[in-house]
Design brief:
By secondary structure, this protein is of the alpha+beta class. The chain has helices at residues 17-20, 27-34, 69-83, 109-112, 135-138, 150-153, 162-172, 175-181, 222-236, 251-260, 277-290, 294-307, 312-324, 328-340, 346-351, 362-378; strands at residues 6-7, 39-43, 51-56, 59-64, 95-101, 119-128, 143-147, 184-189, 192-203, 206-213, 241-247, 263-274. 42% of the residues lie in helices and 23% in strands. Helix 9 links the parallel strand 10 and strand 11. Helix 9 (222-236) crosses helix 10, helix 12 (294-307) runs antiparallel to helix 13 and helix 14 runs parallel beside helix 16. The longest helix is centred in the C-terminal third of the chain and has 17 residues, at 362-378.
Length: 379
């Protein structure tokens, strides 16, 4: 089979608008098509596309005709030879997430993602048309909120996180493009920017925003106030709908959205896989462990460890999986590797039910001692 996939010129992005209309709630798609958000569009036919794949800073989108074997094979080759080979659109992009329509695309994943069967990540989409709180009345003493604009970015008295300008470049193409078309607000305490809410994209009278808070200032309600100030600006500037996306498991993000006035509009699935094959196997093991499929999880972890370096917490999960299966020696081996590589969460480890089969043994006491020593060294 001769497989074909073509990259569209930006002036032709409008040709795929109808293909992605069913997932139009993903505003980034519109922003890419309109040219206000960086991205690339790949199709099966330049003149009359039936299947299309959009790469963007917020994720990837696959839509159109699913029974397009030539396109599916070409898309597989593109993913393997570019994205999985490390030639990603953005620096340090280590995973691929895809939103699909229709759902029957999943029947083609054994071809498109032949080397990396995707995992599912449930997501929630919220919208806001009315502000729920008076952020000015709740602003703590010593804190202030400012528009992130040219004047703000030029302030020499502030520690402005690099994350802010990186966000502007990834979602808008450049800081200048953000200044021209984007918006955002930041909370300041002393000389430090402690929370910031930035527009991800804009299309017509709709926009989407995201939030980030400095780790030393979390769990104080500051993200809620910064987001509320941003929403206040949106609603007073003619925007009729503000969007907010969150992973289902991110209860902090969801709580912030609901306090401000966002309402759950729909639920959807990200299908994701890691660029690095060893990490992808470890992620698959993690999902299997969370689904209480410990035998399959341990098999994935062990394949992953044999392939290359992965994060230390995967060794801790492997230890938990082995302990759940009653494999004491394997559990001890992996918990020791986890500690060697940086695991220091003493209380969490002590309280895990799975590790009770190790309690009272000399080997377990030695592990706990090493964990405490490493924790003391990191203080």
């Amino acid at each position: 089979m001769i497989a074909f996939i073509y990259e569209l010129d930006k002036i032709d992005y409008h040709k795929v608008r109808h293909i992605f209309a069913p997932i139009d709630y993903q505003l980034t798609i519109r922003a890419v098509i309109e040219g206000t958000c960086p991205g690339k569009v790949y199709v099966d036919d330049i003149d009359n596309p039936n299947s299309a794949f959009i790469c963007s800073c917020e994720g990837n989108y696959l839509a159109g005709e699913t029974d397009n074997d030539s396109f599916n094979v070409a898309l597989r080759d593109f993913i393997v030879n570019t994205i999985f080979a490390g030639e990603t659109l953005w620096v340090d992009e280590d995973y691929l997430v895809v939103c699909i329509h229709p759902d029957r695309w999943t029947a083609k994943f054994d071809v498109i993602f032949e080397t990396r069967p995707p995992q599912q990540l449930p997501r929630k989409y919220f919208t806001c048309t009315e502000l729920k709180i008076d952020w000015r009345a709740k602003l703590p003493q010593g804190f202030s909120i400012h528009r992130v604009d040219q004047k703000f970015l030029e302030r020499t008295d502030l520690e402005i996180p690099e994350h802010i300008t990186n966000w502007m470049r990834s979602n808008w193409g450049s800081v200048d493009a953000f200044k021209e078309r984007g918006f955002g607000f930041a909370m300041v305490h002393g000389n430090k920017v402690v929370s910031w809410c930035i527009a991800d994209c804009v299309s017509g009278t709709e926009c989407e925003v995201g939030i980030r808070t400095h780790e030393d200032y979390r769990r104080r309600g500051l993200a809620t106030l910064t987001t509320a100030a941003t929403v206040d600006y949106c609603l007073s500037s003619g925007f009729t709908k503000i969007g907010w996306h969150s992973n289902e498991e991110n209860l902090g993000s969801i709580g912030t959205a609901e306090k401000v006035g966002f309402v759950l509009t729909r639920e959807y699935i990200w299908h994701y896989c890691m660029v690095d094959e060893a990490t992808h196997l470890a992620e698959t093991g993690m999902r299997l462990f969370l689904a209480e499929q410990c035998k399959e999880a341990l098999e994935c972890f062990e394949k992953s460890f044999a392939m290359g370096d992965v994060a230390y917490w995967f060794y801790h999960l492997a230890a938990l999986s082995a302990a759940s299966l009653g494999e004491r020696d394997t559990a001890l081996r992996y918990i020791n590797i986890a500690v060697d590589q940086g695991w220091t969460h003493f209380e969490y480890t002590m309280n895990r039910e799975e590790f009770k089969i190790l309690h009272g043994t000399e080997e377990w006491q030695a592990v706990l001692k090493r964990m405490q020593e490493k924790d003391d060294e990191s203080q």
